[in-house]
Design brief:
200 residues; 9 strands; disordered N terminus
Length: 200
């Protein structure tokens, strides 16, 4: 938050290898195509068996509305900014709240390169530094080993285990928060992020 207690407009974030920019309607087709890849939605509940409902869900999640500073970000390579790698989100949990959740989804070709961790680490640091979030949560299917490893590698800890999902929480002491900032600084390039004049 700024000195007046206001959250900033959703920024574009720049990491060592990636650009994270606010998702717009121009990204819906790429998001839909990613979801259609085999295995992408294996551990995710949603209206995936009805194409119209699936597309409407993507559009609604892009629109929000969310508190300023929150939303979905498209992940692209810094060297190829038109290449869609996936997305990462920081929004009220289940688009309703009150807690703030983080999530990520990558195309098949983008998995296994550390992109999800790099994007999520920097988004967590943004949530802590600029938004002043005291905690961030994620609910991950218990069999989704890849996403569970990413959550643990960005400093989240499992707090509750249900029948199907494990609830992870990030909430750091001042010393741990400084360590997160240092890790995020190491993962990004000279430019960190830029605030657009208005939300997309």
């Amino acid at each position: 938050m700024d000195e007046r207690g206001h959250w900033p407009a959703q920024p574009t974030l720049v990491t060592q290898r990636l650009v994270l920019r606010p998702r717009t309607s121009a990204d819906h087709e790429a998001s839909f195509a990613m979801d259609r890849e085999p295995g992408t939605l294996e551990f995710v509940d949603g209206p995936w068996h009805d194409e119209a409902a699936h597309r409407a869900f993507i559009a609604a999640r892009t629109r929000g509305p969310y508190p300023c500073g929150l939303g979905y970000w498209v992940i692209t390579p810094r060297e190829a900014p038109t290449t869609f790698l996936g997305w990462v989100l920081l929004i009220p949990q289940n688009a309703a709240g009150p807690e703030i959740e983080i999530g990520w989804r990558l195309t098949g070709a983008a998995r296994g390169h550390g992109f999800a961790r790099e994007a999520a680490l920097n988004l967590t640091a943004y949530g802590a530094d600029d938004l002043g979030l005291p905690s961030i949560v994620a609910e991950i299917h218990r069999d989704n080993a890849r996403s569970r490893r990413i959550a643990e590698r960005i400093g989240m800890a499992a707090t509750d285990t249900g029948d199907a999902h494990v609830r992870y929480r990030w909430g750091l002491s001042p010393a741990e928060r400084q360590a997160l900032k240092a890790a995020a600084r190491a993962a990004r390039g000279p430019a960190r992020w830029n605030h657009p004049a208005s939300l997309n």
